[in-house]
Amino acid sequence: MELTAWLSLAAICAFGAMSPGPSLAVVLRYSLFHSAKHGIVASLSHGVGVGIYASLAILGLSGLIHQFPIIYQFLVYGGAAYLAWMGIKILTSKSEGLSVSNADGASSYRKAAQDGFAIAFLNPKLAIFFVALFSQFIDPEKMTLFVGFVMCITVLTIDALWYFFVSVASASARDKFDLTAKRAVIDKILGCAFLLLAIRVIYQSL
């Protein structure tokens, strides 16, 4: 792949990662409610989920979504249900302030990794997006395993790096502006955001 083509691919991936949506809400939840480390774990696992869809697009397996629409619908509604569940859980949890020192257990990191990966994996639109994107850069006659690997790693790395930045920046803002005293408000905002995102996912799939 030529450098100019790679730079174009990287730029599109960066703009895609920066667009607000469920992924941003998940990373913000962990970096604000727990710590920057939790947000970073969610970011890395989200990047892996995105990388898997990029790989599927390269391998052509995403065509299964077109051949079997029920798979697509299952993932879409599964993602909406997951978002709604997270929103309800946040809204019904007790807002007793943020306690970063008590949030470093292995189980909380596993939960961050689970949520970060799930929010990407339960978004089958990524496969369609990457098929459309990669088709602009792949030359069937020049396509090699190395080129495919570079494209997938580019997608994964840019996605993870963006949310890494979001995690560190939001955790820093939390400490700077003493957001620990405003968890009740943050809970309501994020909880409602998750529910609204779930509704949007269902609405767009109709």
Automatic annotation (TrEMBL):
InterPro entries: LeuE-type (IPR001123)
GO MF entries: amino acid transmembrane transporter activity
Main location: membrane
Signal peptide positions on this chain: none
Location relative to the cell: Cell membrane
Membrane-protein topology: Multi-pass membrane protein
Transmembrane region(s): 41-62, 74-92, 117-138, 145-165, 185-203
GO cellular component annotations of the record: plasma membrane
Keywords tagged on the record: Cell membrane, Membrane, Transmembrane, Transmembrane helix
Domain of life the protein comes from: Bacteria
Family annotation (PANTHER family): AMINO ACID EFFLUX PERMEASE RHTB FAMILY (PTHR30086:SF16), ARGININE EXPORTER PROTEIN ARGO (PTHR30086)
Protein name (Swiss-Prot/TrEMBL): Uncharacterized protein
Organism from which the protein derives: Pseudoalteromonas peptidolytica F12-50-A1
Source lineage: Bacteria, Pseudomonadati, Pseudomonadota, Gammaproteobacteria, Alteromonadales
